[in-house]
Give the backbone structure.
Amino acid sequence: MNQLTIKLFADGAVLDEMVAAYRSGVVKGFTTNPSLMRKAGIADYEAFAKEAVARIPDMPISFEVFSDDFEIMEQEARKIAGWGDLVYIKIPVMNARGESSLPLIRKLSAEGFSLNITAILTTEQVEQTVAAFAPGTKNIVSVFAGRIADSGVDPVPYMKQAAAICHSAAGTELLWASSRELLNILQAQECGCDIITCTPDILGKLPQIGKDLWQISLETVQMFAKDSKQSGYSILGAG
């Protein structure tokens, strides 16, 4: 844990889990998205968001717009901005029809809003997004490294390029999104990412960093032995 300099953000929409992560002292911020909220059964988005800000008052939290129409998206963004001083407005890099969000990003950024641009996967998208930010604003560029890896492509070279682009603009942070395993934290840090989002499962594995591999081997065998005994399995039969 001592070698970690990257900021860990908890990714989720279960308020009790968010508060537990906040109290742990490990995470430095939070992200949410419509899919996570649907999975968590959130019925009232605004009520959830306001309670989250009230219970986590001193860390950044990103709340995403829902609309696929840019005019309504802008209205939602302005409302989200009013939920707290540390709230980031999360905007997808395009809508579901493949139309770019760059004009809206430029407009909101010019007014000084803090933005988290999400669902980015290409270097070109990173370049265009960073160029759209107004000087002096604070922004997050969320590159879905996990989804890049899911396509069979190594995300590390992409993230290194993205880090160089993001760090050319003061106030812009690169976030490694859609992490899949604990190793991603160390990869993200090595790439120069500022932030990585982690699920509660990944955060729970943090004590494993640096653990002796022989000890992990032993614990694995002990787990197999315990499960075999509890299952009552037998290869040779009762006799």
Observations:
- The first strand starts at residue 7 and ends at 11.
